[in-house]
């Protein structure tokens, strides 16, 4: 699809403006970039369209809400930056995280007047996306001489945030099984094991997070024939971790 968007000239503002408004080419571009960013964050490959390639009119109407577009831009900018910038540079890492933190504060304030369920829902969605970016940013730094220790703490916090947001959705019956969620849940569960073993996550919190992760992975059986096996393997890893730490195992129906 990326090459088609290029052929249609949608990456450049002047060319895109030549299309009739009824063709909604801006919506097509927004939708593709949005999905491209989201899927790229789950695989070890560059995005199909780099943010630095784009020259488009962000003021035109879009099916994507302004707040969602902001998250899309954060993801797109990071994915583009990751191919051009040394992400082992301490200053670059800390400045990037500072921008993300500011964004989350803005999201909180932007939706302060919304109904509670809308505000809670969007903030949770933003937390998942930004914390997943934090994991991506810090993943190459696990052996960094300065940032390795803080990276483990950030992994623990990010994994906890993502799993708890998904668990809220699960309890309310709003967690629709899909490949993207399964990837994130399994990855965050692995991070909970690693960070607990390294002393950056309290064992009882790790037990809670892993217990809910096993249940959510199992709930993805309708969309993945590997979900049951993944949940069993995860349960085995959790039991081994807790046994090594002298912590009891919670029943699977315990939140």
From TrEMBL:
Source taxon at top rank: Eukaryota
Record's protein name: Transcription factor domain-containing protein
Species annotation: Calocera viscosa (strain TUFC12733)
């Amino acid at each position: 699809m990326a090459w088609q968007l290029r052929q249609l000239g949608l990456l450049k503002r002047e060319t895109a403006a030549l299309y009739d408004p009824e063709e909604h080419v801006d919506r097509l571009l927004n939708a593709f970039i949005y999905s491209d960013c989201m899927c790229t964050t789950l695989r070890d490959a560059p995005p199909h369209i780099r943010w630095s390639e784009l020259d488009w009119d962000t003021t035109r109407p879009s099916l994507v809400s302004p707040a969602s577009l902001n998250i899309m831009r954060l993801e797109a900018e990071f994915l583009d930056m990751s191919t051009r910038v040394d992400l082992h540079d301490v200053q670059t890492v800390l400045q990037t995280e500072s921008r993300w933190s500011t964004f989350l504060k803005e999201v909180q304030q932007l939706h302060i007047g919304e109904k509670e369920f809308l505000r809670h829902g969007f903030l949770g969605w933003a937390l998942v996306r930004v914390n997943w970016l934090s994991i991506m940013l810090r993943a190459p730094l696990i052996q960094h001489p300065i940032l390795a220790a803080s990276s483990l703490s950030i992994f623990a916090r990010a994994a906890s945030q993502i799993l708890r947001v998904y668990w809220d959705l699960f309890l309310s019956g709003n967690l629709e099984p899909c490949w993207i969620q399964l990837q994130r849940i399994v990855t965050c569960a692995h991070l909970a094991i690693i960070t607990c073993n390294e002393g950056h996550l309290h064992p009882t919190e790790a037990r809670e997070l892993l217990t809910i992760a096993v249940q959510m992975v199992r709930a993805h059986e309708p969309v993945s024939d590997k979900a049951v096996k993944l949940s069993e393997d995860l349960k085995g890893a959790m039991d081994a971790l807790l046994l090594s730490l002298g912590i009891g195992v919670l029943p699977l129906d315990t939140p």
